Amino acid sequence: MSLPSMRLGSGWIIGMTLLAGCSAEQRTLVAAQPTSPPTGPDDPRIAAIKGNFYQISQGGRYFTWYGCTSCHGEPKTGWPPRLPFVTYYARIGHKGYDRKIAAEQRWQISAYLNSLTVTDAAKRHRQAVDQKGEPTAGQWQGPL
Amino acid sequence: MRAFALITLLLAGCAGQQSAMHVAGDQAATLISLFRLMMWVCGIAYLLVILFLGWGLIRRRSAADTSEQPYHKLMAGWVGFILLGLILLVVASFLADRSLGQRQQVPLQVRVTGHQWWWRIEYQAGNGRWIETANELHLPAGVPVLLELRAADVIHSFWVPNLAGKMDMIPGKINRMTVTGRTNGWFRGQCAEFCGTQHANMALAVKVEQVGEFDRWLAGQARPVSPGEGVAAGRKVFESASCAVCHQVRGTEARGRVGPDLTHVASRRTIAAGTAPMTHGSLRGWIIQPQAIKPGTSMPPSDLSPQDAEAVASYLETLR
Ligand SMILES: [Cu+2]
Fold it and tell me: Which of A16, A104, A118, B131 could connect to B123 by a Cys-Cys bridge, CB 3.0–4.6 Å?
Protein backbone atom coordinates (compact mmCIF):
# COMPACT_ATOMS: atom_id res chain seq x y z
CA MET A 1 0.00 0.00 0.00
CA SER A 2 1.32 3.44 -0.92
CA LEU A 3 1.55 6.18 1.66
CA PRO A 4 -1.32 8.44 0.45
CA SER A 5 -3.77 5.57 0.23
CA MET A 6 -2.82 4.48 3.76
CA ARG A 7 -3.50 8.00 4.96
CA LEU A 8 -6.82 7.94 3.21
CA GLY A 9 -7.61 4.60 4.82
CA SER A 10 -6.86 5.73 8.36
CA GLY A 11 -8.77 8.97 7.81
CA TRP A 12 -11.74 6.90 6.74
CA ILE A 13 -11.52 4.72 9.82
CA ILE A 14 -11.32 7.75 12.13
CA GLY A 15 -14.27 9.31 10.35
CA MET A 16 -16.39 6.20 10.72
CA THR A 17 -15.48 5.86 14.39
CA LEU A 18 -16.54 9.46 15.00
CA LEU A 19 -19.82 8.91 13.16
CA ALA A 20 -20.50 5.74 15.13
CA GLY A 21 -20.31 7.91 18.23
CA CYS A 22 -23.27 9.94 16.92
CA SER A 23 -25.75 7.10 17.06
CA ALA A 24 -25.60 6.75 20.82
CA GLU A 25 -29.15 7.75 21.77
CA GLN A 26 -31.64 4.91 21.76
CA ARG A 27 -35.33 5.46 21.38
CA THR A 28 -37.96 2.92 22.30
CA LEU A 29 -41.18 3.27 20.39
CA VAL A 30 -43.42 0.60 21.77
CA ALA A 31 -45.16 0.94 25.10
CA ALA A 32 -41.99 -0.16 26.85
CA GLN A 33 -41.25 3.13 28.54
CA PRO A 34 -41.36 3.11 32.35
CA THR A 35 -44.93 2.50 33.45
CA SER A 36 -44.29 2.26 37.18
CA PRO A 37 -42.98 4.94 39.58
CA PRO A 38 -39.26 4.96 40.38
CA THR A 39 -38.48 2.29 42.94
CA GLY A 40 -36.03 4.57 44.77
CA PRO A 41 -33.12 6.94 44.19
CA ASP A 42 -31.04 4.07 42.80
CA ASP A 43 -33.53 2.98 40.14
CA PRO A 44 -31.31 2.51 37.05
CA ARG A 45 -34.03 3.99 34.84
CA ILE A 46 -33.41 7.40 36.46
CA ALA A 47 -29.88 7.79 35.16
CA ALA A 48 -30.98 6.57 31.74
CA ILE A 49 -33.81 9.05 31.35
CA LYS A 50 -31.82 11.98 32.79
CA GLY A 51 -29.31 11.63 29.99
CA ASN A 52 -31.77 11.11 27.13
CA PHE A 53 -32.42 14.31 25.19
CA TYR A 54 -35.50 12.97 23.46
CA GLN A 55 -37.18 12.09 26.76
CA ILE A 56 -36.23 15.47 28.22
CA SER A 57 -37.68 17.38 25.30
CA GLN A 58 -40.87 15.31 25.40
CA GLY A 59 -41.04 16.19 29.11
CA GLY A 60 -40.84 19.88 28.19
CA ARG A 61 -43.66 19.44 25.74
CA TYR A 62 -45.91 17.77 28.25
CA PHE A 63 -44.99 20.43 30.83
CA THR A 64 -46.50 22.97 28.44
CA TRP A 65 -49.41 20.77 27.35
CA TYR A 66 -50.55 19.90 30.87
CA GLY A 67 -50.67 23.59 31.70
CA CYS A 68 -47.97 23.61 34.39
CA THR A 69 -47.01 27.09 33.16
CA SER A 70 -50.40 28.49 34.25
CA CYS A 71 -49.20 28.40 37.88
CA HIS A 72 -45.43 28.08 37.61
CA GLY A 73 -44.91 30.41 34.64
CA GLU A 74 -42.25 29.90 32.01
CA PRO A 75 -39.33 27.95 33.46
CA LYS A 76 -36.92 30.50 34.86
CA THR A 77 -33.73 30.40 36.80
CA GLY A 78 -34.57 29.50 40.36
CA TRP A 79 -37.58 27.35 39.50
CA PRO A 80 -37.82 24.48 39.96
CA PRO A 81 -35.60 24.09 43.03
CA ARG A 82 -32.97 21.40 42.75
CA LEU A 83 -34.60 18.27 44.15
CA PRO A 84 -33.92 14.56 43.84
CA PHE A 85 -35.56 12.89 40.82
CA VAL A 86 -37.93 10.85 42.98
CA THR A 87 -39.14 14.04 44.68
CA TYR A 88 -39.93 15.65 41.32
CA TYR A 89 -41.81 12.52 40.40
CA ALA A 90 -43.82 12.64 43.60
CA ARG A 91 -44.50 16.40 43.52
CA ILE A 92 -45.90 16.27 39.97
CA GLY A 93 -48.78 14.32 41.52
CA HIS A 94 -50.02 17.51 43.26
CA LYS A 95 -53.21 19.36 42.24
CA GLY A 96 -54.91 16.17 41.12
CA TYR A 97 -52.30 15.47 38.45
CA ASP A 98 -51.68 12.00 39.86
CA ARG A 99 -54.94 10.97 38.21
CA LYS A 100 -54.21 12.85 35.00
CA ILE A 101 -50.63 12.17 34.05
CA ALA A 102 -49.58 8.66 33.08
CA ALA A 103 -46.39 7.23 34.56
CA GLU A 104 -44.39 7.54 31.36
CA GLN A 105 -45.17 11.26 31.08
CA ARG A 106 -44.37 11.79 34.75
CA TRP A 107 -40.97 10.27 34.14
CA GLN A 108 -40.42 12.55 31.18
CA ILE A 109 -41.56 15.69 33.01
CA SER A 110 -39.32 14.80 35.97
CA ALA A 111 -36.37 14.46 33.60
CA TYR A 112 -37.24 17.85 32.11
CA LEU A 113 -37.47 19.53 35.54
CA ASN A 114 -34.13 17.99 36.43
CA SER A 115 -32.60 19.33 33.22
CA LEU A 116 -33.85 22.84 34.09
CA THR A 117 -31.65 22.84 37.19
CA VAL A 118 -28.50 21.82 35.36
CA THR A 119 -28.71 23.98 32.21
CA ASP A 120 -28.85 27.74 31.86
CA ALA A 121 -31.37 29.81 29.92
CA ALA A 122 -29.01 30.29 26.98
CA LYS A 123 -28.63 26.58 26.53
CA ARG A 124 -32.38 26.03 26.78
CA HIS A 125 -33.22 28.82 24.38
CA ARG A 126 -33.98 26.57 21.45
CA GLN A 127 -36.36 24.33 23.37
CA ALA A 128 -38.02 27.31 25.05
CA VAL A 129 -38.78 28.79 21.62
CA ASP A 130 -40.17 25.46 20.43
CA GLN A 131 -42.44 25.19 23.45
CA LYS A 132 -43.80 28.72 23.02
CA GLY A 133 -45.42 27.63 19.75
CA GLU A 134 -47.22 24.67 21.32
CA PRO A 135 -50.70 24.62 22.87
CA THR A 136 -50.98 25.12 26.64
CA ALA A 137 -53.84 23.06 28.15
CA GLY A 138 -56.89 25.21 27.32
CA GLN A 139 -55.01 27.79 25.26
CA TRP A 140 -54.10 27.79 21.63
CA GLN A 141 -53.21 31.03 19.93
CA GLY A 142 -51.73 29.35 16.91
CA PRO A 143 -48.09 28.66 16.22
CA LEU A 144 -45.52 31.43 16.48
CA MET B 1 -46.96 -14.58 -9.53
CA ARG B 2 -50.33 -14.83 -7.84
CA ALA B 3 -49.19 -12.41 -5.16
CA PHE B 4 -48.12 -10.02 -7.88
CA ALA B 5 -51.52 -10.24 -9.56
CA LEU B 6 -53.19 -9.67 -6.20
CA ILE B 7 -51.04 -6.65 -5.40
CA THR B 8 -51.70 -5.17 -8.82
CA LEU B 9 -55.42 -5.66 -8.29
CA LEU B 10 -55.28 -4.14 -4.83
CA LEU B 11 -53.28 -1.17 -6.07
CA ALA B 12 -55.77 -0.69 -8.89
CA GLY B 13 -58.41 -0.44 -6.15
CA CYS B 14 -56.60 2.57 -4.68
CA ALA B 15 -56.39 4.29 -8.03
CA GLY B 16 -57.70 7.80 -7.95
CA GLN B 17 -57.94 8.30 -4.17
CA GLN B 18 -54.53 9.90 -3.98
CA SER B 19 -53.29 10.58 -7.46
CA ALA B 20 -52.28 13.66 -9.41
CA MET B 21 -53.55 11.90 -12.54
CA HIS B 22 -57.15 11.89 -11.32
CA VAL B 23 -57.86 15.56 -11.36
CA ALA B 24 -60.58 16.81 -9.03
CA GLY B 25 -59.79 20.51 -8.79
CA ASP B 26 -58.74 23.55 -10.80
CA GLN B 27 -55.17 23.72 -9.46
CA ALA B 28 -54.52 20.06 -10.21
CA ALA B 29 -55.97 20.62 -13.70
CA THR B 30 -53.43 23.41 -14.35
CA LEU B 31 -50.64 21.14 -13.18
CA ILE B 32 -51.76 18.15 -15.22
CA SER B 33 -51.93 20.18 -18.43
CA LEU B 34 -48.40 21.41 -17.77
CA PHE B 35 -47.38 17.82 -17.14
CA ARG B 36 -48.97 16.68 -20.43
CA LEU B 37 -47.20 19.40 -22.39
CA MET B 38 -43.87 18.36 -20.85
CA MET B 39 -44.59 14.72 -21.66
CA TRP B 40 -45.25 15.59 -25.31
CA VAL B 41 -42.24 17.83 -25.82
CA CYS B 42 -39.83 15.53 -24.00
CA GLY B 43 -41.40 12.42 -25.56
CA ILE B 44 -40.95 13.75 -29.09
CA ALA B 45 -37.35 14.79 -28.33
CA TYR B 46 -36.63 11.33 -26.93
CA LEU B 47 -38.16 9.65 -29.95
CA LEU B 48 -36.11 11.77 -32.33
CA VAL B 49 -32.88 10.99 -30.49
CA ILE B 50 -33.61 7.27 -30.64
CA LEU B 51 -34.51 7.51 -34.36
CA PHE B 52 -31.27 9.32 -35.20
CA LEU B 53 -29.30 6.83 -33.18
CA GLY B 54 -30.95 3.88 -34.91
CA TRP B 55 -30.47 5.47 -38.30
CA GLY B 56 -26.79 6.08 -37.56
CA LEU B 57 -26.33 2.46 -36.57
CA ILE B 58 -28.03 1.02 -39.63
CA ARG B 59 -26.70 3.35 -42.30
CA ARG B 60 -23.26 2.60 -43.73
CA ARG B 61 -21.22 5.52 -44.84
CA SER B 62 -19.80 4.98 -48.34
CA ALA B 63 -16.02 5.38 -48.63
CA ALA B 64 -16.38 8.12 -51.22
CA ASP B 65 -18.62 10.25 -49.02
CA THR B 66 -16.46 12.62 -46.96
CA SER B 67 -18.63 15.73 -46.85
CA GLU B 68 -20.47 16.71 -43.69
CA GLN B 69 -22.72 18.97 -45.72
CA PRO B 70 -26.01 17.00 -45.69
CA TYR B 71 -26.14 17.05 -41.88
CA HIS B 72 -25.80 20.75 -41.34
CA LYS B 73 -29.44 21.36 -42.17
CA LEU B 74 -30.50 18.49 -39.97
CA MET B 75 -28.40 19.81 -37.07
CA ALA B 76 -29.86 23.29 -37.47
CA GLY B 77 -33.34 21.79 -37.39
CA TRP B 78 -32.52 19.83 -34.23
CA VAL B 79 -31.10 22.85 -32.42
CA GLY B 80 -34.14 24.85 -33.46
CA PHE B 81 -36.47 22.18 -32.11
CA ILE B 82 -34.69 22.09 -28.75
CA LEU B 83 -34.68 25.86 -28.51
CA LEU B 84 -38.36 26.15 -29.33
CA GLY B 85 -39.27 23.25 -27.07
CA LEU B 86 -37.42 24.71 -24.09
CA ILE B 87 -38.87 28.17 -24.63
CA LEU B 88 -42.34 26.64 -24.82
CA LEU B 89 -41.81 24.77 -21.53
CA VAL B 90 -40.40 27.82 -19.74
CA VAL B 91 -43.29 30.02 -20.85
CA ALA B 92 -45.89 27.36 -20.03
CA SER B 93 -44.51 26.69 -16.55
CA PHE B 94 -44.27 30.42 -15.87
CA LEU B 95 -47.92 30.88 -16.84
CA ALA B 96 -49.04 27.86 -14.79
CA ASP B 97 -47.13 29.09 -11.75
CA ARG B 98 -48.56 32.56 -12.10
CA SER B 99 -52.10 31.29 -12.28
CA LEU B 100 -51.54 29.08 -9.20
CA GLY B 101 -50.08 31.98 -7.26
CA GLN B 102 -52.89 34.39 -8.07
CA ARG B 103 -54.81 35.62 -5.02
CA GLN B 104 -58.42 36.16 -5.83
CA GLN B 105 -61.11 37.29 -3.45
CA VAL B 106 -62.25 34.06 -1.79
CA PRO B 107 -65.46 33.54 0.18
CA LEU B 108 -64.02 30.89 2.51
CA GLN B 109 -60.83 30.75 4.54
CA VAL B 110 -59.53 27.66 6.32
CA ARG B 111 -56.55 27.33 8.66
CA VAL B 112 -54.72 24.04 8.53
CA THR B 113 -52.07 23.50 11.20
CA GLY B 114 -49.69 20.56 11.13
CA HIS B 115 -48.98 18.87 14.48
CA GLN B 116 -46.96 15.74 15.12
CA TRP B 117 -48.92 13.73 13.72
CA TRP B 118 -52.32 15.14 12.96
CA TRP B 119 -54.01 18.11 11.28
CA ARG B 120 -55.85 20.88 13.13
CA ILE B 121 -58.46 22.41 10.85
CA GLU B 122 -60.30 25.65 11.54
CA TYR B 123 -63.03 27.21 9.36
CA GLN B 124 -63.60 30.93 9.47
CA ALA B 125 -67.10 31.59 10.73
CA GLY B 126 -67.23 35.37 10.56
CA ASN B 127 -67.04 37.75 13.55
CA GLY B 128 -63.56 36.45 14.37
CA ARG B 129 -64.81 33.00 15.32
CA TRP B 130 -63.27 29.80 14.03
CA ILE B 131 -64.92 26.39 13.89
CA GLU B 132 -62.43 23.71 14.82
CA THR B 133 -62.22 20.12 13.65
CA ALA B 134 -59.38 17.75 12.80
CA ASN B 135 -58.01 15.36 10.20
CA GLU B 136 -60.92 15.86 7.81
CA LEU B 137 -61.20 18.72 5.34
CA HIS B 138 -64.51 19.39 3.59
CA LEU B 139 -64.59 21.67 0.55
CA PRO B 140 -67.60 23.07 -1.30
CA ALA B 141 -67.45 22.14 -5.00
CA GLY B 142 -66.66 24.97 -7.36
CA VAL B 143 -65.80 27.48 -4.61
CA PRO B 144 -62.22 28.72 -4.27
CA VAL B 145 -61.01 28.20 -0.70
CA LEU B 146 -57.99 29.96 0.77
CA LEU B 147 -55.90 27.61 2.92
CA GLU B 148 -53.64 29.13 5.56
CA LEU B 149 -50.96 26.52 6.16
CA ARG B 150 -49.08 26.58 9.48
CA ALA B 151 -47.07 24.22 11.67
CA ALA B 152 -46.94 23.98 15.45
CA ASP B 153 -43.77 21.95 15.91
CA VAL B 154 -41.73 20.83 12.91
CA ILE B 155 -42.01 21.24 9.15
CA HIS B 156 -44.93 19.37 7.60
CA SER B 157 -46.22 19.53 4.04
CA PHE B 158 -49.78 19.77 2.81
CA TRP B 159 -50.41 17.52 -0.16
CA VAL B 160 -53.71 16.47 -1.68
CA PRO B 161 -52.57 15.45 -5.17
CA ASN B 162 -56.08 15.28 -6.65
CA LEU B 163 -56.61 18.94 -5.83
CA ALA B 164 -53.27 20.75 -5.97
CA GLY B 165 -49.51 20.49 -5.62
CA LYS B 166 -47.56 20.29 -2.37
CA MET B 167 -46.97 23.21 -0.07
CA ASP B 168 -44.76 23.10 3.01
CA MET B 169 -46.06 24.07 6.46
CA ILE B 170 -43.25 25.82 8.28
CA PRO B 171 -43.15 26.84 11.95
CA GLY B 172 -43.15 30.61 12.26
CA LYS B 173 -44.51 31.17 8.78
CA ILE B 174 -47.94 31.19 7.14
CA ASN B 175 -48.09 29.77 3.62
CA ARG B 176 -51.22 30.41 1.61
CA MET B 177 -52.73 28.50 -1.25
CA THR B 178 -56.07 28.50 -2.99
CA VAL B 179 -57.82 25.24 -3.89
CA THR B 180 -61.00 24.83 -5.88
CA GLY B 181 -62.59 21.40 -5.76
CA ARG B 182 -64.59 20.36 -8.83
CA THR B 183 -65.34 16.64 -8.62
CA ASN B 184 -67.42 15.42 -5.68
CA GLY B 185 -65.95 12.58 -3.67
CA TRP B 186 -63.42 11.53 -1.06
CA PHE B 187 -59.72 12.09 -1.64
CA ARG B 188 -56.66 11.34 0.41
CA GLY B 189 -54.04 13.83 1.48
CA GLN B 190 -50.77 12.95 3.12
CA CYS B 191 -48.09 14.87 4.97
CA ALA B 192 -45.32 15.12 2.40
CA GLU B 193 -42.38 16.22 4.53
CA PHE B 194 -40.80 13.75 6.92
CA CYS B 195 -41.86 14.97 10.35
CA GLY B 196 -41.00 12.17 12.77
CA THR B 197 -41.75 8.54 13.50
CA GLN B 198 -45.45 8.59 12.65
CA HIS B 199 -45.09 10.75 9.54
CA ALA B 200 -46.56 7.92 7.45
CA ASN B 201 -49.70 7.87 9.61
CA MET B 202 -50.42 11.54 9.06
CA ALA B 203 -53.14 11.32 6.46
CA LEU B 204 -55.85 13.83 5.70
CA ALA B 205 -59.30 12.85 4.47
CA VAL B 206 -60.67 15.39 2.01
CA LYS B 207 -64.26 15.54 0.81
CA VAL B 208 -65.46 17.71 -2.03
CA GLU B 209 -69.24 18.08 -1.88
CA GLN B 210 -72.13 20.20 -3.14
CA VAL B 211 -72.41 23.64 -1.57
CA GLY B 212 -75.66 22.81 0.24
CA GLU B 213 -74.27 19.62 1.71
CA PHE B 214 -71.11 21.46 2.75
CA ASP B 215 -73.11 24.19 4.50
CA ARG B 216 -75.04 21.56 6.44
CA TRP B 217 -71.80 19.84 7.45
CA LEU B 218 -70.22 23.11 8.60
CA ALA B 219 -73.31 24.07 10.58
CA GLY B 220 -73.13 20.62 12.20
CA GLN B 221 -69.48 21.14 13.13
CA ALA B 222 -70.24 24.58 14.59
CA ARG B 223 -72.83 23.18 17.01
CA PRO B 224 -71.74 22.35 20.57
CA VAL B 225 -72.45 18.75 21.55
CA SER B 226 -75.73 17.11 22.31
CA PRO B 227 -74.62 13.85 23.93
CA GLY B 228 -77.02 10.96 23.44
CA GLU B 229 -78.82 8.88 26.03
CA GLY B 230 -77.08 6.76 28.63
CA VAL B 231 -73.55 8.04 28.26
CA ALA B 232 -73.38 10.26 31.34
CA ALA B 233 -70.95 7.82 32.97
CA GLY B 234 -68.52 8.01 30.06
CA ARG B 235 -68.77 11.76 29.96
CA LYS B 236 -67.95 12.00 33.66
CA VAL B 237 -64.86 9.81 33.25
CA PHE B 238 -63.76 11.82 30.23
CA GLU B 239 -64.01 15.09 32.13
CA SER B 240 -62.38 13.92 35.36
CA ALA B 241 -59.59 11.79 33.87
CA SER B 242 -56.72 13.13 31.77
CA CYS B 243 -58.70 13.51 28.54
CA ALA B 244 -60.15 16.95 29.27
CA VAL B 245 -56.67 18.42 29.79
CA CYS B 246 -55.85 17.87 26.12
CA HIS B 247 -59.19 17.58 24.32
CA GLN B 248 -62.06 19.93 23.77
CA VAL B 249 -65.69 18.89 23.58
CA ARG B 250 -67.50 22.16 23.03
CA GLY B 251 -70.50 22.54 25.30
CA THR B 252 -68.96 20.50 28.14
CA GLU B 253 -66.28 20.95 30.78
CA ALA B 254 -63.61 19.51 28.49
CA ARG B 255 -61.62 22.49 27.23
CA GLY B 256 -58.14 21.24 26.28
CA ARG B 257 -56.67 22.58 23.06
CA VAL B 258 -53.63 20.30 22.90
CA GLY B 259 -55.03 17.40 20.86
CA PRO B 260 -57.74 17.16 18.20
CA ASP B 261 -61.13 18.77 18.96
CA LEU B 262 -63.46 15.86 19.78
CA THR B 263 -66.79 17.75 19.65
CA HIS B 264 -67.87 15.79 16.57
CA VAL B 265 -65.25 13.07 16.58
CA ALA B 266 -67.67 10.29 15.64
CA SER B 267 -68.64 12.12 12.45
CA ARG B 268 -65.15 11.44 11.11
CA ARG B 269 -64.27 8.36 9.10
CA THR B 270 -61.03 7.47 10.87
CA ILE B 271 -59.20 8.13 14.12
CA ALA B 272 -55.71 9.53 14.58
CA ALA B 273 -55.20 10.93 11.09
CA GLY B 274 -56.20 7.88 9.07
CA THR B 275 -54.52 5.34 11.34
CA ALA B 276 -57.60 3.27 12.26
CA PRO B 277 -61.24 3.20 11.13
CA MET B 278 -63.80 4.92 13.35
CA THR B 279 -65.30 1.95 15.16
CA HIS B 280 -66.19 1.24 18.76
CA GLY B 281 -63.34 -1.25 18.98
CA SER B 282 -60.62 1.00 17.67
CA LEU B 283 -61.86 3.88 19.84
CA ARG B 284 -61.63 1.71 22.93
CA GLY B 285 -58.23 0.36 21.93
CA TRP B 286 -57.01 3.88 21.24
CA ILE B 287 -58.21 5.15 24.63
CA ILE B 288 -56.46 2.39 26.55
CA GLN B 289 -53.19 2.27 24.66
CA PRO B 290 -52.73 4.64 21.71
CA GLN B 291 -49.08 3.59 21.54
CA ALA B 292 -50.14 0.14 20.38
CA ILE B 293 -52.05 1.60 17.43
CA LYS B 294 -49.73 4.50 16.55
CA PRO B 295 -46.39 3.87 18.28
CA GLY B 296 -44.69 7.11 19.20
CA THR B 297 -47.85 9.25 19.13
CA SER B 298 -47.87 12.03 21.69
CA MET B 299 -51.21 10.98 23.18
CA PRO B 300 -50.27 9.18 26.41
CA PRO B 301 -51.80 5.88 27.47
CA SER B 302 -54.54 6.13 30.08
CA ASP B 303 -54.81 3.98 33.15
CA LEU B 304 -58.59 3.71 32.86
CA SER B 305 -60.22 0.45 33.89
CA PRO B 306 -61.71 -1.58 31.01
CA GLN B 307 -65.22 -0.55 32.12
CA ASP B 308 -64.28 3.13 32.15
CA ALA B 309 -62.61 2.88 28.75
CA GLU B 310 -65.73 1.17 27.42
CA ALA B 311 -67.90 3.96 28.83
CA VAL B 312 -65.69 6.68 27.34
CA ALA B 313 -65.73 4.95 23.94
CA SER B 314 -69.54 4.80 24.06
CA TYR B 315 -69.64 8.49 24.98
CA LEU B 316 -67.31 9.49 22.15
CA GLU B 317 -69.42 7.47 19.72
CA THR B 318 -72.40 9.70 20.41
CA LEU B 319 -70.45 12.83 19.47
CA ARG B 320 -71.60 13.02 15.88
CU1 LIG C 1 -46.18 15.79 9.09
Answer: B131
Q: Domain range holding A71? A: 57-137
For chain A, the farthest-separated pair of C-alpha atoms sits apart, in whole angstroms, at 71
Q: Classify residue A48: in a domain, yes or no.
A: no
Instruction: Look at residue A92 and tell me if it is in a domain.
Output: yes
Give B242-245 contacts, CB < 8 A, sequence gap 24+. Answer: B242/A99, B242/A100, B242/A101, B242/A102, B242/B300, B242/B302, B243/B302, B243/B312, B245/A65, B245/A66, B245/A67, B245/A100, B245/A137
Give the distance from residue A133's alpha carbon to the nearest chain B alpha carbon, in angstroms: 6
H/E element, B49: helix B26-58
**Residue-wise pLDDT tens digits, A25-38:** 666 655 455 678 88
Q: What is the pLDDT, as a whole number, of residue B27?
A: 93
Taking only the tens place, the pLDDT of each residue in B64-100 is 666 666 678 888 988 999 999 999 999 999 999 998 8
Give the strand pairing for B185-190 and B203-209: antiparallel
Q: Is residue A96 part of a domain?
A: yes
Task: State whether B171 and A105 contact (CB < 8 Å).
Answer: no
Nearest by CB to A29, which of B197, B258, B300?
A: B197
The total number of structural domains that make up chain A: 1
Give the pTM.
Answer: 0.87
Q: What are the counts of helices (DSSP H) followed by strands (DSSP E) for chain B?
A: 9, 12
Q: Is residue A78 situated within a structural domain?
A: yes
How much is the ipTM here? 0.80
Cis omega (within 30 of 0) for bond into A80: yes
Q: Would you call A135 an interface residue with chain B, using a CB distance cutoff of 8 Å?
A: yes
**Mutation site, B110, B170, B197, B258, interface A, largest A CB count within 10 A:** B258
> Which residue in chain A is spatially nearest to B112 when comparing CA positions?
A142
Q: What's the confidence (pLDDT) of residue B63? A: 63
Range B2-31 average pLDDT: 74
B300: left (phi over 0), alpha (psi -120 to 50) or beta: beta
Give the domains, in start order, of chain B with CATH numbers. 14-55+70-222 (2.60.40.420), 232-318 (2.60.40.420)
B153 in contact with A, Cβ within 8 Å: yes
Whether B301 shows a pLDDT value over 80: the answer reads yes
Cα–Cα distance measured from residue A97 to residue A66, given in angstroms and rounded to the nearest whole number: 9
In chain A, the residue whose alpha carbon lies closest to the alpha carbon of B258 is A135
